[in-house]
UniProtKB/TrEMBL annotation:
Catalytic activity field: 1-(2-carboxyphenylamino)-1-deoxy-D-ribulose 5-phosphate + H(+) = (1S,2R)-1-C-(indol-3-yl)glycerol 3-phosphate + CO2 + H2O
Upper lineage: Bacteria, Bacillati, Bacillota, Negativicutes, Selenomonadales
Pathway membership: Amino-acid biosynthesis; L-tryptophan biosynthesis; L-tryptophan from chorismate: step 4/5
An annotated Gene Ontology molecular function: indole-3-glycerol-phosphate synthase activity
Organism: Sporomusa termitida
InterPro entries per UniProt: Aldolase_TIM, Indole-3-glycerol_P_synth, Indole-3-glycerol_P_synth_dom, RibuloseP-bd_barrel
GO biological process: L-tryptophan biosynthetic process
Keywords: Amino-acid biosynthesis, Aromatic amino acid biosynthesis, Decarboxylase, Lyase, Tryptophan biosynthesis
All residue ranges annotated as the Indole-3-glycerol phosphate synthase domain in the record: 20-233
Name of the protein: indole-3-glycerol-phosphate synthase
Its EC number(s): 4.1.1.48
Pfam families per the UniProt record, alphabetical: IGPS
Principal EC category: lyase
Amino acid sequence: MKKVTPLETISGRLTTGSFAFSSALASRDWALIAECKLASPAKGTLCKDYTVPELAAIFATNGAAALSVHTNAAFRGCLDDIRQVKAVVSLPVLCKEFVIDEYQLYAARAAGADAVLLIAAILSDSELRTLSQLAASLGLDCLVEVHTLAELSRVKQAGARLVGINNRDLQTFTTNIEQTFRLLPDCEPGWLIISESGIKNGEDALKLKNAGVKGILVGEGLVTAPDRPAKTCELAVPSLQYEGRGQNA
């Protein structure tokens, strides 16, 4: 990418972001980040019926607060998907990518991203700080993803404010939302906490909401649902259907 489009070229196209992603989450008591995910390396094709922009339109119409767009080729994604999504919806967009280089932040913002994913498991402490500071200078929010208590301690030192707790065990690839509940007590007051992976229905969503989580990021559960609009509504406003059961859980 650097050879095809040098950083100097990208820098000339940039407009500074306005931290629209975190603002959209903070303005709500509950937020669904809906992921436009066509495939995964582990499970292959997940959605054949819709394009990424078409999925984005469904999610936006049915209550999502923000969108996540994969730009990695292993997930059948690319940076141009962000441009196409931004052309059809007004929701803020997270660039879902394995970010390891500063160039990727410039490229994400140039494509129209409002936020980027930083994964603590693949970044050193200095990389987390450097990438977070650069993102801030570009007006990009960082969703800093953790899997363990040790990673959570590291992102505190990096000054993270928007933190994603991934419920997927990176060794076994199994998911369990209990991981979010285990790490919540060690999260800082004022953080925006997002639970990622393994959220199956409105009941799961309501349990997380009642525990103090700000929102959820859901991909596979949405794109493989028989009725995607209905599933989006269920996760975006979980209290409508699950208030009684969720409160007693």
